Amino acid sequence: MSEIQSPAGPLSSLRLEERLRDTRLFFSQALRTFHATGSILPSSAALAHSMAEYVRSRPVPDKPVRILEAGAGTGAISRGIAAAMIPGDTLDLVESNPEFAAHVEELLRSDPAMSPVADSATVHAKLVNDMGRDRRYDVIVSGLPFANFTADAVRDILDYYFEVLEPGGTLSFYGYLYTKEVKAVIARREDYLRQARTSWLVQDWIDRYGIRSDKVFANVPPAWVHHLRKPGKTG
Ligand SMILES: C[S@@+](CC[C@H](N)C(=O)[O-])C[C@H]1O[C@@H](n2cnc3c(N)ncnc32)[C@H](O)[C@@H]1O
After folding, report:
1. What is the mean pLDDT of the chain?
2. What is the CATH number of the domain that holds 167?
3. What is the DSSP letter of 172?
4. Residue 36 CA to ligand 1 centre (angstroms)
5. φ, ψ of residue 120 in degrees (nearest 5)
6. CB neighbour list of residue 80: distance below 8 Å, 6 or more residues apart
7. DSSP letter at 213?
8. Domain enclosing residue 182, as ranges
9. What are the residue boundaries of the Methyltransferase domain, all occurrences included (predicted)?
Protein backbone atom coordinates (compact mmCIF):
# COMPACT_ATOMS: atom_id res chain seq x y z
CA MET A 1 0.00 0.00 0.00
CA SER A 2 1.25 3.48 -0.71
CA GLU A 3 0.28 7.11 -0.24
CA ILE A 4 -0.16 9.61 -3.04
CA GLN A 5 0.02 13.23 -1.94
CA SER A 6 -0.01 15.45 -4.99
CA PRO A 7 -1.14 15.63 -8.58
CA ALA A 8 1.28 14.88 -11.36
CA GLY A 9 1.64 15.58 -15.05
CA PRO A 10 -0.50 17.69 -17.34
CA LEU A 11 -3.59 17.36 -15.14
CA SER A 12 -2.19 19.79 -12.56
CA SER A 13 -2.33 22.53 -15.19
CA LEU A 14 -6.09 22.22 -15.67
CA ARG A 15 -7.27 25.80 -15.99
CA LEU A 16 -8.99 27.43 -13.02
CA GLU A 17 -11.90 28.43 -15.24
CA GLU A 18 -12.48 24.78 -16.26
CA ARG A 19 -12.24 23.59 -12.66
CA LEU A 20 -14.81 26.16 -11.55
CA ARG A 21 -17.20 25.26 -14.37
CA ASP A 22 -16.93 21.52 -13.55
CA THR A 23 -17.26 22.15 -9.81
CA ARG A 24 -20.40 24.28 -10.25
CA LEU A 25 -22.07 21.63 -12.41
CA PHE A 26 -21.01 18.80 -10.09
CA PHE A 27 -22.21 20.60 -6.97
CA SER A 28 -25.59 21.51 -8.47
CA GLN A 29 -26.18 17.88 -9.57
CA ALA A 30 -24.99 16.55 -6.18
CA LEU A 31 -27.68 18.65 -4.47
CA ARG A 32 -30.33 17.07 -6.72
CA THR A 33 -29.08 13.47 -6.85
CA PHE A 34 -26.74 12.86 -3.91
CA HIS A 35 -27.51 9.13 -3.78
CA ALA A 36 -26.07 8.56 -7.28
CA THR A 37 -23.48 11.36 -7.25
CA GLY A 38 -21.97 10.39 -3.91
CA SER A 39 -19.91 13.50 -3.19
CA ILE A 40 -20.18 17.25 -3.55
CA LEU A 41 -16.92 17.86 -5.42
CA PRO A 42 -15.34 16.23 -8.47
CA SER A 43 -12.25 14.09 -7.88
CA SER A 44 -8.82 15.73 -7.76
CA ALA A 45 -6.06 15.32 -10.34
CA ALA A 46 -4.15 13.18 -7.80
CA LEU A 47 -7.06 10.77 -7.47
CA ALA A 48 -7.46 10.69 -11.27
CA HIS A 49 -3.75 9.88 -11.63
CA SER A 50 -4.02 7.01 -9.18
CA MET A 51 -7.21 5.65 -10.78
CA ALA A 52 -5.49 5.59 -14.19
CA GLU A 53 -2.57 3.51 -12.84
CA TYR A 54 -3.37 0.42 -14.94
CA VAL A 55 -3.94 2.42 -18.11
CA ARG A 56 -0.34 3.63 -17.65
CA SER A 57 1.16 0.31 -16.47
CA ARG A 58 -0.53 -1.87 -19.03
CA PRO A 59 0.26 -5.62 -18.95
CA VAL A 60 1.97 -5.62 -22.35
CA PRO A 61 3.83 -2.33 -22.99
CA ASP A 62 2.61 -0.49 -26.10
CA LYS A 63 -0.29 -2.94 -26.61
CA PRO A 64 -3.63 -1.07 -26.89
CA VAL A 65 -6.26 -1.70 -24.24
CA ARG A 66 -10.05 -1.41 -24.11
CA ILE A 67 -11.08 0.83 -21.22
CA LEU A 68 -14.42 1.29 -19.49
CA GLU A 69 -14.95 4.25 -17.17
CA ALA A 70 -18.13 4.00 -15.11
CA GLY A 71 -19.55 7.18 -13.57
CA ALA A 72 -17.60 9.77 -15.54
CA GLY A 73 -19.32 12.72 -13.82
CA THR A 74 -17.73 15.97 -15.01
CA GLY A 75 -14.73 14.12 -16.43
CA ALA A 76 -12.25 14.53 -13.57
CA ILE A 77 -11.02 10.94 -13.78
CA SER A 78 -11.63 10.72 -17.52
CA ARG A 79 -8.89 13.33 -17.94
CA GLY A 80 -6.45 11.12 -16.00
CA ILE A 81 -7.38 8.19 -18.21
CA ALA A 82 -7.03 10.27 -21.40
CA ALA A 83 -3.55 11.40 -20.34
CA ALA A 84 -2.45 7.75 -20.03
CA MET A 85 -3.98 6.50 -23.30
CA ILE A 86 -1.88 5.51 -26.31
CA PRO A 87 -2.91 5.18 -29.98
CA GLY A 88 -5.18 2.16 -30.46
CA ASP A 89 -6.74 2.34 -26.98
CA THR A 90 -10.53 2.69 -26.83
CA LEU A 91 -12.56 4.29 -24.06
CA ASP A 92 -16.24 3.81 -23.18
CA LEU A 93 -17.38 6.59 -20.83
CA VAL A 94 -20.58 5.60 -19.03
CA GLU A 95 -22.62 8.09 -17.06
CA SER A 96 -26.22 7.70 -15.86
CA ASN A 97 -26.90 11.41 -15.28
CA PRO A 98 -27.77 12.92 -18.70
CA GLU A 99 -26.45 16.38 -17.74
CA PHE A 100 -23.04 14.90 -16.89
CA ALA A 101 -23.08 12.73 -20.02
CA ALA A 102 -23.77 15.81 -22.19
CA HIS A 103 -20.94 17.64 -20.39
CA VAL A 104 -18.49 14.81 -21.12
CA GLU A 105 -19.55 14.83 -24.79
CA GLU A 106 -18.69 18.53 -24.83
CA LEU A 107 -15.32 17.86 -23.17
CA LEU A 108 -14.47 15.46 -26.00
CA ARG A 109 -15.06 18.33 -28.44
CA SER A 110 -13.37 21.17 -26.58
CA ASP A 111 -11.33 20.16 -23.53
CA PRO A 112 -7.53 20.20 -24.08
CA ALA A 113 -7.07 16.99 -22.04
CA MET A 114 -10.01 15.10 -23.57
CA SER A 115 -10.16 16.18 -27.21
CA PRO A 116 -6.97 14.27 -28.19
CA VAL A 117 -8.81 10.97 -27.46
CA ALA A 118 -12.18 12.02 -28.96
CA ASP A 119 -11.90 9.63 -31.93
CA SER A 120 -11.33 6.66 -29.61
CA ALA A 121 -13.93 7.52 -26.98
CA THR A 122 -17.71 6.96 -26.81
CA VAL A 123 -20.09 8.43 -24.22
CA HIS A 124 -22.97 6.20 -23.08
CA ALA A 125 -25.73 7.98 -21.15
CA LYS A 126 -26.96 4.97 -19.17
CA LEU A 127 -26.46 2.82 -16.08
CA VAL A 128 -23.25 0.84 -16.37
CA ASN A 129 -24.92 -2.55 -15.95
CA ASP A 130 -27.22 -1.69 -18.87
CA MET A 131 -24.18 -1.66 -21.18
CA GLY A 132 -24.69 -5.31 -22.17
CA ARG A 133 -22.75 -8.44 -21.33
CA ASP A 134 -21.22 -9.00 -24.77
CA ARG A 135 -18.55 -6.32 -24.24
CA ARG A 136 -14.93 -6.99 -23.25
CA TYR A 137 -12.48 -4.69 -21.44
CA ASP A 138 -8.86 -4.87 -20.29
CA VAL A 139 -9.16 -2.01 -17.79
CA ILE A 140 -12.22 -0.85 -15.84
CA VAL A 141 -12.11 2.39 -13.85
CA SER A 142 -15.16 2.85 -11.64
CA GLY A 143 -16.10 6.11 -9.96
CA LEU A 144 -19.45 4.84 -8.68
CA PRO A 145 -20.28 5.77 -5.07
CA PHE A 146 -20.55 2.20 -3.72
CA ALA A 147 -20.94 3.52 -0.15
CA ASN A 148 -24.35 4.97 -1.11
CA PHE A 149 -25.63 1.70 -2.62
CA THR A 150 -27.03 -1.48 -1.09
CA ALA A 151 -24.77 -4.53 -0.92
CA ASP A 152 -26.99 -6.27 -3.50
CA ALA A 153 -26.64 -3.38 -5.96
CA VAL A 154 -22.85 -3.32 -5.52
CA ARG A 155 -22.64 -7.12 -5.95
CA ASP A 156 -24.54 -6.82 -9.26
CA ILE A 157 -22.16 -4.11 -10.46
CA LEU A 158 -18.99 -5.97 -9.38
CA ASP A 159 -20.30 -9.19 -10.98
CA TYR A 160 -20.94 -7.22 -14.18
CA TYR A 161 -17.42 -5.73 -14.14
CA PHE A 162 -15.82 -9.16 -13.70
CA GLU A 163 -18.01 -10.63 -16.44
CA VAL A 164 -16.94 -8.07 -19.05
CA LEU A 165 -13.31 -7.89 -17.84
CA GLU A 166 -10.83 -10.08 -19.72
CA PRO A 167 -8.90 -12.60 -17.58
CA GLY A 168 -5.86 -10.72 -16.22
CA GLY A 169 -7.71 -7.39 -16.64
CA THR A 170 -7.89 -4.83 -13.84
CA LEU A 171 -10.66 -3.00 -12.02
CA SER A 172 -9.83 0.21 -10.15
CA PHE A 173 -12.28 1.99 -7.84
CA TYR A 174 -12.16 4.32 -4.88
CA GLY A 175 -13.89 4.88 -1.57
CA TYR A 176 -13.55 7.75 0.85
CA LEU A 177 -11.55 7.39 4.07
CA TYR A 178 -13.42 7.45 7.38
CA THR A 179 -16.91 7.15 5.77
CA LYS A 180 -17.85 4.31 8.13
CA GLU A 181 -16.65 6.22 11.21
CA VAL A 182 -18.54 9.39 10.18
CA LYS A 183 -21.71 7.39 9.44
CA ALA A 184 -21.44 5.67 12.83
CA VAL A 185 -21.84 9.11 14.41
CA ILE A 186 -24.28 10.93 12.11
CA ALA A 187 -26.30 8.35 10.16
CA ARG A 188 -29.57 6.69 11.09
CA ARG A 189 -29.09 3.10 12.30
CA GLU A 190 -30.51 1.45 9.13
CA ASP A 191 -28.31 3.59 6.87
CA TYR A 192 -25.26 2.75 8.99
CA LEU A 193 -26.08 -0.99 8.76
CA ARG A 194 -26.71 -0.77 4.99
CA GLN A 195 -23.34 0.84 4.51
CA ALA A 196 -21.62 -1.65 6.82
CA ARG A 197 -23.02 -4.53 4.70
CA THR A 198 -21.83 -2.83 1.51
CA SER A 199 -18.39 -2.24 2.91
CA TRP A 200 -18.07 -5.93 4.02
CA LEU A 201 -18.97 -6.99 0.51
CA VAL A 202 -16.45 -4.59 -1.07
CA GLN A 203 -13.76 -5.71 1.40
CA ASP A 204 -14.43 -9.35 0.48
CA TRP A 205 -13.77 -8.53 -3.21
CA ILE A 206 -10.61 -6.64 -2.25
CA ASP A 207 -9.44 -9.61 -0.13
CA ARG A 208 -10.06 -12.03 -3.00
CA TYR A 209 -8.76 -10.06 -5.97
CA GLY A 210 -6.88 -6.99 -4.67
CA ILE A 211 -3.40 -6.38 -6.08
CA ARG A 212 -2.72 -2.92 -4.71
CA SER A 213 -4.35 -0.17 -2.59
CA ASP A 214 -3.21 3.46 -2.36
CA LYS A 215 -4.27 6.25 -0.03
CA VAL A 216 -4.79 9.57 -1.82
CA PHE A 217 -4.76 12.48 0.63
CA ALA A 218 -4.85 15.17 -2.04
CA ASN A 219 -8.59 14.83 -2.57
CA VAL A 220 -11.67 16.14 -0.76
CA PRO A 221 -12.36 13.90 1.06
CA PRO A 222 -9.17 11.77 1.09
CA ALA A 223 -9.69 8.43 -0.61
CA TRP A 224 -8.51 4.81 -0.86
CA VAL A 225 -7.93 3.61 -4.39
CA HIS A 226 -8.23 -0.16 -4.78
CA HIS A 227 -6.94 -2.10 -7.79
CA LEU A 228 -8.26 -5.64 -8.38
CA ARG A 229 -7.22 -8.19 -11.01
CA LYS A 230 -9.49 -10.79 -12.55
CA PRO A 231 -7.77 -14.19 -12.29
CA GLY A 232 -6.42 -15.68 -15.51
CA LYS A 233 -3.79 -15.00 -18.07
CA THR A 234 -3.52 -11.64 -19.81
CA GLY A 235 -3.97 -12.04 -23.58
C1 LIG B 1 -18.73 10.05 -7.13
S2 LIG B 1 -19.31 10.61 -8.72
C3 LIG B 1 -17.75 10.49 -9.59
C4 LIG B 1 -17.68 11.42 -10.75
C5 LIG B 1 -16.28 11.54 -11.38
N6 LIG B 1 -15.81 10.26 -11.86
C7 LIG B 1 -15.32 12.09 -10.38
O8 LIG B 1 -14.53 11.29 -9.84
O9 LIG B 1 -15.35 13.30 -10.14
C10 LIG B 1 -20.22 9.21 -9.29
C11 LIG B 1 -20.80 9.32 -10.69
O12 LIG B 1 -21.38 8.07 -11.06
C13 LIG B 1 -22.63 8.29 -11.72
N14 LIG B 1 -23.39 7.05 -11.52
C15 LIG B 1 -23.95 6.61 -10.36
N16 LIG B 1 -24.47 5.39 -10.55
C17 LIG B 1 -24.21 5.02 -11.83
C18 LIG B 1 -24.45 3.83 -12.60
N19 LIG B 1 -25.07 2.77 -12.08
N20 LIG B 1 -24.02 3.80 -13.89
C21 LIG B 1 -23.37 4.87 -14.43
N22 LIG B 1 -23.11 6.02 -13.75
C23 LIG B 1 -23.51 6.09 -12.46
C24 LIG B 1 -23.19 9.54 -11.04
O25 LIG B 1 -24.15 10.19 -11.83
C26 LIG B 1 -21.91 10.34 -10.81
O27 LIG B 1 -21.65 11.18 -11.90
Report:
1. 90
2. 3.40.50.150
3. E
4. 6
5. -105, 5
6. 11, 45, 47, 48, 49, 51, 52
7. E
8. 2-228
9. 67-169
Q: Quote the ligand 1 centre to 185 CA distance (angstroms).
A: 26
Is 143 touching ligand 1 by the criterion CB < 6 Å?
yes
Task: Name which residue sits closest to atom 11 of ligand 1, judged by CA.
Answer: 71
Q: What are phi and psi of 62, to 5 degrees?
A: 70, 0
Which of the residue ranges 53-67, 100-114, 161-175, 189-203 would you say has the lowest mean pLDDT?
189-203
* Tally of domains within the chain: 1
Output the CA angle 162-163-168, nearest 5 degrees.
55
The Å distance, Cα 2 to ligand 1 centre, comes to: 25
> For residue 110, what is the enclosing H or E element?
helix 98-110
pTM check: above 0.85: yes
Cβ of 128 less than 6 Å from ligand 1: yes
How many angstroms separate the alpha carbon of residue 145 from the centre of ligand 1?
7
